[in-house]
Automatic annotation (TrEMBL):
Residues 181-204 form the Ice-binding protein C-terminal domain. Keywords: Signal. Residues 1-20 form the signal peptide. It comes from Massilia aurea. InterPro entries: Ice-binding_C. This is Ice-binding protein C-terminal domain-containing protein. NCBIfam families: PEP_CTERM.
Amino acid sequence: MVRITPLLFAAALLAQPAQAAVTYSWHEASTSATSPPGLNIELVFSDEAVAQGSLELDFVNMCDLGEPCLDKQDSLLSLRYWYEDPWAEDGRANSIDYGHLKLPEHYFDQIRLNVTFLPGGLLNGYIYANDGNSHFEIESLGSLFTVLDAHSDEPFGCGYQYDPCSGSTGYLSNAPIVGEVPEPSSVLLAGLGLAAIGFARRRRAR
């Protein structure tokens, strides 16, 4: 049996061809008194996954606890989550750093998500991630996500100064967000309204 060492793994990773990807980042809409400030979430999906319009995943990598060590999926290329902490060496606390074809940073990587890639670069759905040290869970109403729960074994943030961590809201988008984000239903109603106005004007012009 071949043992996977960090050196062998790094060599295999370098041999992998670059994969086209789309990055979705957290854009905060509101903060919560029960959560630390400075929430960051970043997900990188393959172009193929985004083109399909939706994605559902449910897997666990347990490299320290036995097989399976590496997941076989190649749709979610990376997931990063953290709260900003000026006292931490890297400026991050309660962090999760999952990477496709990357050894788990802590005990394991567990990810469950069911998301839809919306027009305009927005994301909606449900996301849960856990690395055995920290976890978070978010779900959206339309395209607006709410933090349902977050916790960490670290002596900062979720589970310590802030318990429970929940209530913050934001959008996951692959482009900058300027102003208020309309929900898909609002966009549809606005489009129908404009079409009705145009039709009425054409009738009056006859």
